[in-house]
Amino acid sequence: MKTEITLQSVPEEKPGFIVIILYLAFIYGLFWVINQGLIYLFRDITNELLVKILNNIIWIGYMFLHYKVVKYFLYLIQKQRRSPVILPVLSISEMGINYYTESKKTEWKDISEIQIIDAVLSVTVDLNPEKDFKLNLSKTDLQKQMTQDSFEKLLEYHYKKDVYIYNAPSSCGCGC
User: Fold this and answer.
1) Integer Cα distance of 98 and 12 in angstroms
2) What is the pTM for the complete model shown?
3) 3 and 94 Cβ atoms separated by less than 8 Å
4) Backbone φ, ψ for residue 126 (5° rounding)
5) Whole-number pLDDT of residue 152
6) Cβ(108)–Cβ(100) below 8 Å
């Protein structure tokens, strides 16, 4: 059995260029639908001053929405070009657990409780509550290194007390 493991963060999903183009097409299509709806609603207005005021209000709103769309579009492009950052998150060894995200190193004898509830690892240290942490295991590369059962056995091998494990059954969506 592997007695030491270091879990790393999984890089976040990047939007593809096709998704970005579909986003732009959808937004500008929505702008066109809103424009056609406003033309239909205000077609019976004959007062020239009221038409100019409504036209300016709609134009300002359209420009604001256009600014937001372009800003979000540039954010998506920047996110697409950024290289992924993979950092170590959790290390398990014979000495204890090291949670790198918050620089919390804890020895096995100091840990009072370990729980894994629906792929969320929760470690509690009674004498030093600042060392308590929770880690969502689905946001790590655990599945690439070993199975969830092997990880649980590894924890039970090092941590001599009980490890509380609960996995909710998957729902069929029927509400039962």
Assistant:
1) 23
2) 0.58
3) yes
4) -65, -45
5) 84
6) no
Question: What is the token pair recorded at 71?
Answer: 């800003």
User: What local confidence, expressed as pLDDT, does residue 171 receive?
Assistant: 65
The tokens describing 171, both together, are 């729902």
> Within a 13 Å sphere around the CA of 106, how many CA atoms are in the beta-carbon half?
27
Instruction: Report helix, strand or coil for 45.
Output: coil
- CA 148, CA 123: separation in Å to the nearest integer? 17
* 82: CB partners within 8 A, 6+ apart: 14
Four-residue CA torsion sign, 31, 33, 38, 43: positive
Q: Residue 151: CA atoms inside 13 Å, Cβ hemisphere, count?
A: 24
State pLDDT tens for residues 5-18. Answer: 788 877 777 777 78
pLDDT per residue as tens digits for the range 119-146? 888 888 888 888 888 888 888 888 888 8
Output the six-digit token pair for 52.
Answer: 């100019």
How far lies 115's CA from each of 17, 100, 135, in Å?
40, 19, 11
Per-residue confidence band for 175, with pLDDT thresholds at 50, 70 and 90: low
Say which amino acid occupies 87. Answer: L
Examine the pLDDT at 1 and tell me if it is beyond 50: no
